[in-house]
Amino acid sequence: MSISITTKEPHEIQEVLDFAHAKAMIEEFRRNNPQFFQIYDALVEDYNQKREAADKAVRAAEVRCGDWDLYQRYAKVNPQKVYESVGRETFLEAGGTIINKREYKMDARMFELAVTRGLVPKEVVEACTTVESKYHAPPAAVIL
What is the pTM of this model? Predict the structure, then answer.
């Protein structure tokens, strides 16, 4: 089902206008202070590279170290592998459970055609359909 998207100009939503102003202020400050940001950008680049390398090293060592807080460790059991290894009876005795669950899926195009053909009543469509909106939003400014 094709659902229309309404577009508004930034001046029509005050918060968007405020955001645009804040963004312009940051961009202007960056333009007016090129030496500062040349140094700052280099420091941030170095920081990010070293943080990534340290993260890999600490995780590989599986330890708590400096700013890296290994706050929990636990054994995770793969129930399917246990079942396949010991069989149904032992699996159930060892605390396993077998759940048969129904999962319903709907092909959106087929559903739309069924609605168009009148196969699905309008009241069912209204009761069973919601609209989800997805956005691409500007990223947050991050300062350490």
Answer: 0.64
